[in-house]
Write a structure and sequence with these properties.
Number of helices: 12
Number of strands: 0
Shape: globular
CATH superfamily of the largest domain: MazG-like
CATH architecture of the largest domain: Orthogonal Bundle
Amino acid sequence: MEPSSRGFYRLVAIVDRLLGPGGCPWDQAQTHESLKQTLVEESYEVLAAIDHGSQETLREELGDLLLQPVMHAQMEKRDGGWDIDDVADAISDKLVRRHPHVFGDTEAHTADEVLKNWDRIKMEEKGVIDSSILGDVPIGMASLLRAHVVSRRAARAGFEWPGVEAVFEKLREEERELKEAIASGDTAAIESEIGDLLFTVVNIARWVDVEPEDALRKMVNRFVARFRAMEARAAKPLDALSPEEWDVLWNASKAEEQGSTAP
């Protein structure tokens, strides 16, 4: 296919050219392993573009991310294996199989019913009806994201609190246990209790339909912006500031931020 063609297959043709004879030495030297970190970085840049709200930036970053599966697929094609069409066909077949309420005669009227059907079909496909619903949650996921995925799946299987207030009660229980662990000086117990506390907070986020990974990322972004503003505003070295001076600077930076985002 000629690179002059438009859209997705123009990209595929360009990647084939880069990977083929007379192409780019850097691209030709890449492997699935060497591109792993790039895939992660490009994913986070897409998230940053969504948070920023710039449609132009989002379009650009989605393009950078789209390049990654095309590179992986076309490297396989170059080496005599599958290609991007095989990848697209596989996901298309999977979407049809796992949406029988759309492409078949199964009924599912709520998002919860759709997800339960998805889990059931997924385990049937793997030929292990009694396997754990948590079995394929990637261990390498960011821990906060993995906690949210595990919590969601367990809840879909029926392992759930009766209401959000019960989760807050669990939070208070975990807080007490953490304080006891800190008082004991047992490092392993402290680590364990902090994990329990964090996991409970993740469950609160799930109950109120907030993605904890997104919430924490945005909070850290706010903290960084406010801290940088404090650095710019401080009249003396930061380590020479008193707690009261830190508080004044923090409140001023917070007020400035809120003023800049007001409609």
